[in-house]
């Protein structure tokens, strides 16, 4: 069966953190349209907030994010001042004071901010929004630059979850990706945050890195599990040097091939499950008590631009350069270039650069793809009926699904689709069968495994 898996694993496929995916967002999206979408929100419904800080104090060569190296703090301070204005500007466009169910700081590295600037921005958020009593307040951080002062401030500000990019503990791999962080450094950061009252800890691990082996990754899993993070994400390295110039520092010859990547992913997953973590969705693992594991068991896990989530809000308000948000009417993405983003905000304009209004077919296919990505199974007919679609609406997906069924990767009984244990790592390919935009797309994507 390895030859079957290898044949699928090397296919380039979207990650489906949204549908339609970001390459299909329309340029020059009109700011008044976004204002209208915000104005029409139900003020009684909870919303999520995402705040993006595109700065890092150190460059990682594997990173594919839109980020800037913060050699000096002045540009970061200016960005924080503008972000404060955007918070107030966006809140003023809403139909009233709304309640936040989830808040997530991403980047870049949000802890590239000073503790005082982070506190200033959180105070601005609280000035315009209320927080639900059980709101998750999360932040991404870098153990190489997290200070004891910042860890204490994160706890004092009420954060409930923090994420670390561990990636791999093997020193040769760390040097090859320019991210040297010994286990003791990560452990210290985890202990500081837990002591400050941050109860939820997430780790990100990556397979497919230069010079990485099954043995080094399994050892990384062992060391990570000793620190007992509540959630661990296991991502495949996406080598896209045509998009991320810093990845050109990584030698192609040092990267593992498709079969080696698959072996690493399988070995790491087995090690995580042996350590007591439950497999969640495509690439997440969680301790049984964690809220994500509970949501997965109850069939209410969701997927958005931050990955798998317990967040049930239908609106994600995105703040900061290049951030992506969602309303019931469609997707929006802020201007990516920080100078242009800043000018728009200072002129009193919502700094939206791209967007995509939903049509009913988008909503239908998005729900099928999300349930498949989250649950590993989906009743295609039931979701079609919910959206008023004709019985045969998904016939365009059937040939690809039947091919996967013949290879033992899924079962298709009528309109009931279920990934097999063998096919679970390839769920993105099954989801792609429902993607109406993909056949004509020129966008480049990472491999499936």
Strand order of the largest sheet: 10-11-9-8-7-6-5-2-14
The CATH C-level class name of the domain at 41-319: Alpha Beta
* Overall helicity: 25-40%
Proportion in β-strands: 15-25%
Count of DSSP strands: 20
Q: Structural class of the helices, strands and pairings?
A: alpha/beta
Give the CATH H-level superfamily of the domain at 41-319. tm_1862 like domain
Number of helices: 15
CATH topology of the domain at 41-319: pyruvate-formate lyase- activating enzyme
Through-space gap between termini: 15 Å
Chain-averaged pLDDT:
95
Shape: globular
Report low-confidence residues grouped into runs of 5 or more: none
**Major β-sheet annotation:** 9 strands, mixed
Describe the structure.
The protein is of the alpha/beta class. The protein has a domain at 41-319: pyruvate-formate lyase- activating enzyme. Helices cover 36% and strands 22% of the residues. It has 15 helices and 20 strands. The strands form 5 sheets. Strands 10-11-9-8-7-6-5-2-14 form a 9-stranded mixed sheet, with helices on both faces. The chain starts with a helix and ends in a 17-residue tail after the last helix.
């Amino acid at each position: 069966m390895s030859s079957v898996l290898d044949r699928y694993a090397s296919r380039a496929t979207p990650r489906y953190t949204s549908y339609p995916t970001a390459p299909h967002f329309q340029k020059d999206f009109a700011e008044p349209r976004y204002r209208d979408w915000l104005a029409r929100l139900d003020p009684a419904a909870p919303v999520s907030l995402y705040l993006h800080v595109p700065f890092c104090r150190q460059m990682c060569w594997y990173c594919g994010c839109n980020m800037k190296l913060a050699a000096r703090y002045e540009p970061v301070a200016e960005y924080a001042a503008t972000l404060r204005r955007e918070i107030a500007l966006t809140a003023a466009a809403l139909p009233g004071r709304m309640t936040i169910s989830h808040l997530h700081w991403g980047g870049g590295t949000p802890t590239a901010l000073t503790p005082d600037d982070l506190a200033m921005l959180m105070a601005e958020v609280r000035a315009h929004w209320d927080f639900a009593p059980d709101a998750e307040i999360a932040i991404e951080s870098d153990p190489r630059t997290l200070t004891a002062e910042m860890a204490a401030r994160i706890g004092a500000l009420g954060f409930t979850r923090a994420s670390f990019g561990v990636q791999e503990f093997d020193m040769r791999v760390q040097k090859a990706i320019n991210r040297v962080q010994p286990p003791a450094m990560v452990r210290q950061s985890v202990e500081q945050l837990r002591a400050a009252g941050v109860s939820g800890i997430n780790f990100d691990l990556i397979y497919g890195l230069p010079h990485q082996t099954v043995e080094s990754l399994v050892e990384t899993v062992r060391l990570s599990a000793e620190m007992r993070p509540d959630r661990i994400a296991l991502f495949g390295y996406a080598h896209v040097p045509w998009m991320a110039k810093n990845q050109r520092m990584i030698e192609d010859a040092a990267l593992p091939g498709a079969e080696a990547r698959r072996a690493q992913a399988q070995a790491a997953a087995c090690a995580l499950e042996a350590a007591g973590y439950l497999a969640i969705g495509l690439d997440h693992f969680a301790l049984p008590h964690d809220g994500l594991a509970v949501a997965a068991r109850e069939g209410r896990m969701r997927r958005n631009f931050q990955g798998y989530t317990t967040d049930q809000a239908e609106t994600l308000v995105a703040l900061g350069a290049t951030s992506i948000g969602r309303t019931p009417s469609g997707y929006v993405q802020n201007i990516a270039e920080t100078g242009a983003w800043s000018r728009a905000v200072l002129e009193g304009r919502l700094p939206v650069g791209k967007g995509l209004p939903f049509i009913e077919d988008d909503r239908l296919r998005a729900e099928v793809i999300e349930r498949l990505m989250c649950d590993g199974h989906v009743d295609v007919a039931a979701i079609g009926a919910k959206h008023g679609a004709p019985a045969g609406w998904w016939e365009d997906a059937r040939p690809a699904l039947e091919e996967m069924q013949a290879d033992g990767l899924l079962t298709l009984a009528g309109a009931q689709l279920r990934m097999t244990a063998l096919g679970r790592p390839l769920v993105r390919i099954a989801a792609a069968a429902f993607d109406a935009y993909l056949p004509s797309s020129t966008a480049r994507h990472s491999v499936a495994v």
